[in-house]
Design a protein that fits this description.
The protein is mainly alpha-helical. It has helices at residues 2-10, 21-24, 34-43, 48-60, 84-96, 102-114, 118-121, 150-166, 191-200, 206-219, 222-229, 233-251, 266-274, and strands at residues 129-131, 137-140, 145-147.
Length: 288
């Protein structure tokens, strides 16, 4: 309940959050066996911490088998990536294909440029976007405004303007509207809905985000990546160590593949600049 209250305080508490795995498995807490618990943790690798706390609580109140143990979580390194050419092609689609829904284009570009997960994109509010005195658009991912490519900045501007123009219900005056509002402006669309939209339009999220993160940590120090993308320094450092060990092995066989005639590597270089730190210690973000 304490965890539930914390989650509800951070944002809307979705119906899916209240789903109980034990109910779906037709198991009672008193009947839970170690094999069942191990299976749950295998199927839900991100739930180790909260599950361990819950199991300790249940054992202390004699609600379940006192011999149950939930192993400490281990961060598993990703194995699904996109070829950099495919990532460039997908990014180009997001920025230029007007046939794609605007929400899909924005989410796709943010995940491919800044390695953002959909769980971070969905709750973004419109006030995170600002236009500087220099005329450029910036998006604050955590603390520091990140300079956006002009096409993405225009997309976000259109999204904000369109949401205000089509909404018949005003959002709460004390709460900034969501960048991607639901039919009710005080809510954002469900994560499942956006995942389904991305899959439907051929824009995978996990592989693109993994590749974008790898490219960031191989070109920038972990401290810069953490500050720029709004992630924990330990996470950025783990990615950097993983990239040095495994990404080099992944790319080595590709160095022997001759590029196709007329092949231009500038998109990769451009994306590296998009993750760069602005000079002068002021704003951070893409150089173009």
């Amino acid at each position: 309940m304490r965890d539930t209250r914390r989650r509800a305080a951070r944002g809307p508490y979705s119906p899916r959050a209240a789903d109980a795995w034990l109910d779906h498995e037709d198991l009672g807490l008193a009947e839970l066996a170690q094999a069942d618990l191990d299976r749950y943790l295998t199927e839900h690798p991100t739930k180790h911490r909260s599950t361990r706390a819950f199991i300790r609580w249940a054992i202390s109140r004699r609600l379940t088998d006192k011999h149950l143990t939930a192993a400490a979580p281990r961060w598993t390194f990703p194995s699904d990536f996109l070829d950099t050419d495919e990532l460039d092609a997908q990014l180009s689609r997001c920025l230029n294909d007007t046939g794609l829904p605007r929400e899909v284009r924005i989410a796709g570009a943010l995940s491919r440029l800044y390695a953002l997960s959909l769980t971070r994109i969905v709750p973004l509010t419109a006030d995170r976007y600002t236009q500087g005195a220099d005329g450029h658009g910036y998006l604050t991912l955590k603390r520091n405004p990140v300079l956006l490519p002009p096409k993405l900045a225009r997309l976000i501007q259109e999204q904000i303007t369109g949401a205000i123009g089509t909404s018949m219900i005003s959002p709460h005056p004390e709460s900034p509207p969501f960048l991607m509002p639901d039919r009710v402006p005080s809510r954002h669309p469900s994560l499942n809905w956006l995942y389904a939209q991305m899959r439907e339009h051929g824009l995978p999220v996990r592989q693109a985000r993994n590749t974008a993160m790898i490219e960031a940590v191989t070109r920038l120090p972990p401290t810069v990546v953490a500050d720029l993308l709004g992630i924990h320094l330990g996470t950025a450092d783990s990615w950097a160590r993983y990239a040095n060990a495994s990404w080099a092995a992944y790319r080595a066989p590709r160095q022997h593949i001759a590029p196709s005639p007329g092949h231009d590597r500038r998109p990769t270089i451009r994306r590296a600049r998009l993750c760069g730190r602005a000079q002068g210690g002021e704003r951070q973000g893409p150089a173009g």
